Structure formats: structure tokens, C-alpha cells
Amino acid sequence: MIAPSHQDLVVKGSLNPGAIQFNNEILLLLRVAEGCPETKDEIAVPVYHFEHGKGALTVLHLKKDDPELCRKDTRAVIHQGQEYVSTISHLRLARSTDGVHFSVDEKPFLTPQNSSEEFGVEDARIVQIDDCYYINYTAVSRDSYGTSLLKTKNFVDLEYLGMIFSAPNKDVCIFPEKINGKYFALHRPYNHDFGKSSIWIAESPDLIHWGKHRCLIRPAHNQWESEKIGGGAPPIKTAHGWLEVYHGKTLIDGKDFYSLMVLLLDLDDPSKVIYRGEKPILVPEKDYETNGFVPNVVFLNGMVLRNEEDLYLYYSACDETSCLAECKLEDLIPI
Predict the structure, then answer these.
(1) CA distances in angstroms from 331 to 211, 231, 232, 262, 326, listed in the order given
(2) Where are the domains of the chain?
(3) Does the reported pTM lie above 0.90?
(4) For the segment 44-87, what is each residue's pLDDT rounded down to a tens digit?
(5) Looking at the domain 168-335, which fold is it?
(6) Which of 20, 110, 177, 332 is the least crowded, having the fewest Cβ atoms under 10 Å away?
């Protein structure tokens, strides 16, 4: 069981873990989603406020019969024209020596740090570049969601580097090394009014300033990813190309359905697609993948290659639980 971070909150789920091998352990950086117990008459909404550079959690108590209150979806409520989230997330470390059995730290690794994170920090992805570990995560606020970055050498001392992709943008996957003198990242701008959300690629000289944005792939016209797509875990370097496992969303009987797909990118120019899978490598099938907070969802943020051949995919199910799928690396590479 994961203990809540605050006395007024209860844990709703631990999901979308970033993953990395660190020393002799595998670390997961879990998104721990917390909410307030709901009563017969009220909905309680957690929000962070910031004063003098410090954040503090407060709870808004909203009457269910308030005519200015409405539920938007499973996560969002609107009150007096302002949108809030019913759950708020922080990041917490889990540790394992075998990659299967994990112990979860009692205290959060990262909580909201500024007003761009007032509605929580979510969905970490981790890469090692030289002797530093870079963690990008989704920062959520009333201004939508963007992607922020921090770095660490020991997962104790953190250096905040700020927001690197402004709202609305998420699903950022940074490549774990420079390619021809430049850093690369996949990202997913959100299309509100025109087109469909797709996977883009960008370049940077320093991991902070990103440019040369171009669309890498768009949703395919098939039964698995016709609505939108987004990056999954940071790409893994193989002899045949950069392996990326991404997620696709489609609608089945009017309901969202997420699955995991494979992409292979050129080693010297990752804007070139070598291979794109036609069918998913993982779809919601198990009960815990089809029934939960958000049904029919498998979603990937982290994968670890062990012994140069065993691939551990740490994914979440139903926006609620964290899971593990194992395969051989060669099973995902069609070449």
C-alpha cells in the first residue's frame, strides 16, 4: 500500500511510471494520484497555492447542488467557470533489485514547485546522459499542461531546469545521447481545433531550448490509433535503430481504447522512420486493464533493457495501477 502524502488525501492510483537502471537497482518514478473522500453533499478538490516560493496544499469544498458546479469527466470539475482536477498527482520513487518486486518510498520525490504545477506533476520519463539523469514530467495548471525538466546525479539532490515545452504539450521522450552533436526529443502538441494529435520531433543544443519542430508520424487510419498518438518511453538504442514504443488511441463503441505500438527510427537521423508496426504489441485484455478508473487503457512511460536482450516494459492500466510486461528485445524489431 502507498501512504498518502497529506492527511486530507487518499491515494486513488499509482500509474505511468518512468523507469531507469541506477546502480544495482531499477527505479520507478510513479505518478501517485490522490483525491479527497467524497461525501453525500460535497466534492472536495485539492489544489496547490504558492507564496514566497513555497507550495502548500489546500482543499476546496464544493457543494454538489451548487448550480455553478458541473463535472466535466472522470478527472475534471468546473466551478464558477474555473476548471479543477478532482485528483492531484505527485511523483514518488519505487526501488527494486530484480525489476519485479518494488518497495515504495514513504515520502514524495517531487511535489508541485510553482504555479505552473498547481494541479499536480505527472507522468515522468527518465534518461541517463553521461553522469546525469534527466527527468521530464507533465506540469498541470489552470493554464493547461506543459513539460518541465529537472536533473539529478543521485535521485536526492535535484536541479530544476524549468518548462521546456509550453502548454499544451506532453508525452515528451528525450533521446539518451546526442546525435550528430544535437539532442533530440519526441513531443506531442495537442490539437484542439484542427488536425489530430501526433508525434513530433525537435532538436536542442542544450536540452533547454528546442527548435526545428516537425511532425514525425500522424495517427494511422486503422482500428488501433485513429484518434491520436503520443510518445511512450524514451527511445532505446539498438543495432537496427532507435526503438520507440508509443501509445495509440481509438474509439470502440464510443469509448476510448489505448494500446501500445512500435516505431523504429534511424540511428543517425531520428526524423527518418525505418519501421512502423501495423498491430499493437499490447492491448487491454486483462480485467485490470479493461475495468478501472479509465477503462481499456494501457500506457507506457518507462522501459529498461537488461542483459542487452530482456526488455522490461513498465506500463499502467486504467490510469490506476502500474504493471510489468516482459519480452526479448529482438521480438519488437522486425529486421
Answers:
(1) 34, 20, 18, 11, 10
(2) 168-335
(3) yes
(4) 999 999 988 788 899 999 999 999 999 877 678 899 999 898 89
(5) Tachylectin-2; Chain A (2.115.10)
(6) 177
